[in-house]
């Protein structure tokens, strides 16, 4: 779906934001960051290529005039239009796909990932990739690869169901390859993963420089998510192999990488990024928009703000609160934030946990709040319990509001807090409870921490600093001109065995 908005301005610097599940179709920290960047640069023209769920998601942000168009790339919903290839074209695509899945599963074949991905992108542009991946030939290719002698995944005895599941997940993950890539300006991926796919295509076809900003570490979050996913190991090997090699290819090909914290840099360097091309740019807030919150609430109250999602680990927070309540029976925990579609079961699990711990009457899910400052003002202490973060807005916003914080030591949290809050290990309810009790018992210390936190934001983490940094980066990358296109060796044509034979062998 294309949404045209403002008109392109001749001679203006052009940036295409590449997003996944965020701006401009949903709220949340990364969406806030995108809105800050766009609205803060009226002199820059923006397009957006947004990877979405079904393509039917409404735009929930007011787009300024400098946003020319929004293109959605749905990963789910109805299958894309197109016809499967026939004859020689099918054999070529099957050969490219075999090289692709071999790279995902065989460490000795990883050099084949990039040229194979390029060939798949060409097929996606012609409307042939998705139909091919929904057919028997793709299943035959995968089963043939992971049943080769010596292939480690073969020891897990992959089944036909595994093959169908893995191929289906890959088909959906590769759908963004069909999105029209930027042809000029700068392609700015605001996360790793599938949002980068149009950017890699734009770099290869048109020399458009690729800028990567990682708020959290996309690959790490995929590892965390798939650890409890309901798939057998052969499926996880394929999908996680794809995400790992995609991350490494992105790190190698990006003109510049701008992590939101120094923690991300470790992952990026290990993934093959040139350290000279990594520049940390912290998220920022406007201190005037988040002034001191004023008097604390009566009675001991812990507050939390964010989306209700497993990665925020509200279960650890609720367990910690139950320990707090053993010492302070009048304590309350107020949770502010919406529940994403599909996350209802997690919220119900959290509510059941609170009830089971005898704290159901003191834990309230407040939903989305009109003014997020109210969420920070609602607590004597603001909590953050995530198992993965980048440089969380909720934390620096609470700091700007002058509230003392207790946060888990993930991502850039320690860089944000410094000495102005308490940091505890993730998934440790006892440590979190002890830190909260320490602050709840000492109003003077809370006040001093809150004042130090606001000063830290003013000195280091303002929105103006963030916007100015990215404007300079956009102008610099634009002035460099197109990158040289990559010369790929031709992908060998491989005759796969007939699908019926391959499927019969795996069903066995």
Automatic annotation (TrEMBL):
Organism ancestry: Bacteria, Bacillati, Actinomycetota, Actinomycetes, Kitasatosporales
Listed PANTHER family: BLL3647 PROTEIN, GLYCOSYLTRANSFERASE
Record key words, sorted: Transferase
Domain DUF3492: 14-275
GO molecular function, one term: glycosyltransferase activity
Protein name (Swiss-Prot/TrEMBL): D-inositol 3-phosphate glycosyltransferase
Signal peptide (UniProt feature, chain positions): none
Organism: Streptomyces mangrovisoli
InterPro entries: DUF3492 (IPR022622), PelF-like (IPR047691)
SUPFAM superfamilies assigned to the protein according to its UniProt record, in alphabetical order: UDP-Glycosyltransferase/glycogen phosphorylase
Highest taxon of the lineage: Bacteria
């Amino acid at each position: 779906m294309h949404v045209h908005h403002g008109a392109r301005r001749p001679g203006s610097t052009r940036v295409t934001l590449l997003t996944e599940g965020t701006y401009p179709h949903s709220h949340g920290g990364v969406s806030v960051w995108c809105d800050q960047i766009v609205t803060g640069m009226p002199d820059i023209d923006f397009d957006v290529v947004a990877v979405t769920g079904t393509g039917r998601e409404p735009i929930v942000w007011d787009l300024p005039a400098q946003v020319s168009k929004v293109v959605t790339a749905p990963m789910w919903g109805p299958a894309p239009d197109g016809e499967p290839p026939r004859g020689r074209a099918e054999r070529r695509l099957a050969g490219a796909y075999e090289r692709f899945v071999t790279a995902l599963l065989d460490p000795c074949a990883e050099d084949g990932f990039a040229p194979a991905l390029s060939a798949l992108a060409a097929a996606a542009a012609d409307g042939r990739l998705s139909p091919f991946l929904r057919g028997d030939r793709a299943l035959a290719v995968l089963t043939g690869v992971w049943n080769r002698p010596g292939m480690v995944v073969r020891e897990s005895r992959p089944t036909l169901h595994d093959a169908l599941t893995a191929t289906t997940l890959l088909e959906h993950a590769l759908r963004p390859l069909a999105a029209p890539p930027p042809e000029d300006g700068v392609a700015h991926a605001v996360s790793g993963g599938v949002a980068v796919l149009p950017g890699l295509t734009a770099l290869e076809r048109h020399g458009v420089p690729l800028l990567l900003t990682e708020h959290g570490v996309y690959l790490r979050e995929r590892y965390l998510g798939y650890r409890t996913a309901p798939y057998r190991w052969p499926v996880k090997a394929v999908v996680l192999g794809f995400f790992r090699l995609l991350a490494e290819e992105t790190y190698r090909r990006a003109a510049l990488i701008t992590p939101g914290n120094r923690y991300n840099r470790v992952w990026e360097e290990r993934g093959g990024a040139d350290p000279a091309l990594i520049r940390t740019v912290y998220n920022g807030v406007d201190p005037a928009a988040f002034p001191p919150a004023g008097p604390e609430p009566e009675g001991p109250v812990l507050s939390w703000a964010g989306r209700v999602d497993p990665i925020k680990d509200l279960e650890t927070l609720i367990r910690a609160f139950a320990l707090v309540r053993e010492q302070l029976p009048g304590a309350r925990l107020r949770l502010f934030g919406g529940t994403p579609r599909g996350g209802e079961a997690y919220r119900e699990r959290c509510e059941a946990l609170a009830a089971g711990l005898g704290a159901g009457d003191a834990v309230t899910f407040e939903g989305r709040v009109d003014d997020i400052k109210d969420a920070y003002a609602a607590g004597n202490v603001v909590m953050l319990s995530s198992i993965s973060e980048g440089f969380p807005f909720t934390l620096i916003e609470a700091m700007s509001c002058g509230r003392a914080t207790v946060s888990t030591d993930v991502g850039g949290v320690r860089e944000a807090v410094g000495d102005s809050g308490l940091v505890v290990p993730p998934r440790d309810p006892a440590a979190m409870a002890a830190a909260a009790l320490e602050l709840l018992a000492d109003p003077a210390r809370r006040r001093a921490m809150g004042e130090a936190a606001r000063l830290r934001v003013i000195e280091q983490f303002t929105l103006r600093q963030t916007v100015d940094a990215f404007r300079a980066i956009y102008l610099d990358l634009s002035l460099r001109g197109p990158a040289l296109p990559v010369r790929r060796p031709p992908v060998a044509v491989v005759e796969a065995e007939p699908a019926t034979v391959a499927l019969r062998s795996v069903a066995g």
